[in-house]
Write a structure and sequence with these properties.
Layout: E1 9-15, H1 24-36, E2 41-47, H2 58-69, E3 73-74, E4 86-91, H3 108-119
Parallel strand pairs: 1-2
Antiparallel strand pairs: 2-4, 3-4
Length: 121
């Protein structure tokens, strides 16, 4: 993957178990608070086990609010059945609908599919 960014990029992988503890959002908020002060460019991938498009789901609404509060945006618009089910990114100076922590992020859905294919065991 080729990326252009003037400052360091932090890549995180997050897993939230299907049976969420009540503290996940609080823990995730604390993590984002700590890393957002040190990095302008953040890319978060992982399996959040949250149907972010279900606006009646409390966890989905909390996650969306948290992402918006930290200027994070979702790249993947449909569910993925792989380890890299979501990619969220943030750039302090530039947020787009199809997000990028950098000037360009190479076609995220197909990139994720290729990476996930190679990680299957």
């Amino acid at each position: 993957m080729a990326m252009k960014c003037a400052s360091p990029v932090l890549f995180l992988t997050i897993f939230c178990p299907p049976k969420k503890s009540s503290g996940f959002i609080d823990d995730f908020t604390e993590l984002l608070s700590k890393i957002s002060t040190d990095f302008d460019c953040i890319v978060i991938s992982g399996d959040f086990n949250i149907h972010i498009d279900n606006h009646t789901d409390t966890h989905a609404r909390e996650l969306i609010s948290l992402l918006e509060a930290f200027g994070l945006s979702q790249h993947v618009s449909r569910p993925r059945q792989s380890f890299f089910s979501k990619i969220i990114s943030e750039n302090a100076n530039n947020t787009h609908i199809l997000f990028s922590t950098v000037d360009r992020l190479v076609n995220p859905p197909s990139l994720i599919a290729r990476v996930a294919f190679h990680l299957k065991m």
